[in-house]
Write a structure and sequence with these properties.
Largest sheet: 8 strands, mixed
Number of helices: 17
Shape: globular
Structural class: alpha/beta
Distance between the termini: 28 Å
Oligomer: single chain
Number of strands: 14
Length: 486
């Protein structure tokens, strides 16, 4: 998760964070204007991303999103990890996000952090000190430039690579890890173009290595309770859901010290669509068994004018600040409607540029009632009547087994970060299939380029590719899996 606010800024008890890891050389690049950043990104396979040039989404618009390329390997749906007594982990990116997530990997039994990588030497050394303080052998440390992660991935004693870097590097790092025979988990978004998403799908199938979007919101207590209730039929036939990333990040995006350069703000000079759909889309997709009996087939998006960041800059940034060279095009509020094969509707929202309380919306409705979060409330027949919201706490019996077993987990975001790490490491140790896979990663991220294209086409629907190549028609387990025997 790449939430980007200090812990005390979030009114919902979540402690948002970021993935802002870079080297001194990268930092100097990231502090340049958007146009210069576009040139710097070309070597990373991101296409022409600078302001005034073709955007990342437009770069792939010529390809037919409905076209399904021939499969280059067998499906990864339901494929189990090899069982192992110890999971050996390499961590790439040790800024705000990676620097905190390493604590959770160290807190899980049967996990060893073998190597850490960050071009900023101090960050890597602090992370290495955490490993030895936890009683593990000193990890290998990779700090020799922004490409040193390749050497970490090439090691023969790593099972899983965790990537927590700026978005621009996610695709290449995930690709490199799989090519070196490693399973890989990436903070969101996993990539930024449709062709990149297809390449990760194909590479996962060809290498037989899982490539996962580490969407921690799928492991929130409320999300997991609603998931179990939905699968038990308490909402009846499911009709609609909604998810969002509505989070005021203006102060952090203009903070010269919080990010490793203004990489996140610069994305607001490149795309107009939903830059961060995963937190909202992932949980609702789970409720509706997307890729496990249903499929997201199209997205329609509209966007407001882009005024928020410029207004904030005018009020807070001094003349001569590099940000005055930037032109923002990202819609302050993006609203998208996703249609599924079964006719269900999922509403997605994104707004990080205007003042408002934090909300992921997180709602689900069916023929028997509805749940809405922020604040949490529920209305179900026959339990409730008189059109009045009821207490969601009364349904605690439906908590997922993870939350019953670990009622007070350590770590950020109310404990969901620990749940994600614990469950993934458990699946690897016991030789289970992961709760979500590369097809989920691609589906949850596809709104990034597709919402941009839809907005530019004045809301015209854009087809969402079937990354599963037909496997979505087969029911299979996901996050709502039974507790395994250890």
């Amino acid at each position: 998760m790449n939430d980007d606010a200090p812990q005390d800024q979030n009114p919902q008890g979540q402690d948002p964070q970021t993935t802002d890891d870079g080297s001194l050389s990268r930092r100097s690049v990231l502090r340049t204007t958007a146009g210069a950043m576009g040139a710097a990104s070309a070597g990373l396979g991101l296409g022409t991303l600078g302001a005034g040039s073709a955007s990342a989404a437009e770069h792939t618009a010529a390809a037919d999103p409905q076209a399904v390329p021939a499969r280059k390997g067998a499906t990864m749906a339901g494929v189990r990890f090899d069982r192992r007594s110890t999971v050996r982990v390499g961590i790439v990116g040790l800024g705000n996000r990676g620097g905190s997530m390493i604590d959770l990997f160290l807190a899980v039994d049967g996990v060893r952090v073998v190597a850490v990588c960050d071009p900023v030497k101090d960050k890597a050394e602090r992370a290495a000190a955490k490993v030895t303080a936890a009683g593990q052998p000193a990890p290998a440390v990779y700090t020799k430039g922004e490409d040193d992660y390749e050497n970490l991935c090439a090691r023969g004693d790593i099972d899983f690579v965790y990537v927590a870097t700026p978005w621009d590097f996610h695709f290449e790092m995930a690709k490199t890890a799989m090519l070196h025979g490693k399973h890989v988990g990436v903070e969101c978004p996993i990539a930024l173009r449709l062709d990149q998403l297809w390449e990760l799908v194909d590479l996962s199938e060809r290498t037989r290595r899982h490539c996962m979007q580490l969407e921690n919101c799928c492991y929130g207590r409320n999300e997991m309770r609603v998931l179990r209730m939905a699968h038990a039929g308490l909402f009846g036939d499911l009709l609609h859901g909604a998810g969002a990333y509505n989070h005021d990040l203006r102060g952090l995006m203009f903070d010269p010290d919080y990010y490793e350069g203004p990489w996140r703000r610069l994305w607001h000079t490149r795309l107009r669509g939903d830059l961060y759909p995963n937190h909202g889309f992932g949980p609702v997709a789970n409720y509706m068994d997307v890729n496990r009996g249903d499929r997201a087939v199209s997205i329609t998006s509209v966007g407001s004018p882009s005024l928020g960041l410029a207004a904030y800059r005018k009020e807070h940034m001094p003349a001569g600040d590099p940000s005055w060279k930037e032109t923002y095009i990202e819609s302050d509020r993006t609203i998208s409607l996703v249609q599924t094969a079964k006719g269900r509707v999922i509403r997605l929202e994104h707004d990080v540029s205007t003042p408002h309380p934090y909300s992921r919306i997180n709602s689900l409705g069916g023929t028997k009632g509805v749940f809405e979060d922020y604040p949490e409330r529920i209305y179900l027949e026959p339990d409730h009547s008189n059109d009045e919201w009821a207490d969601f706490g009364a349904y605690a019996e439906w908590d997922h087994w993870l939350w019953k077993k670990y009622a007070d987990p350590p770590g950020g975001h109310g404990g969901m970060d620990y749940m994600l790490v614990f469950r993934l490491m458990q699946c690897m140790r016991l030789g289970l299939a992961p709760d979500f896979d590369v097809y989920d990663a691609a589906t949850w991220t596809a709104p990034v380029p597709l919402s941009h294209l839809s907005i530019k086409a004045k809301g015209a629907p854009q087809p969402i590719p079937d990354f599963t190549r037909g496997e979505w028609k087969k029911a299979r387990s996901g996050v709502d899996s039974p507790e395994p025997a250890e």
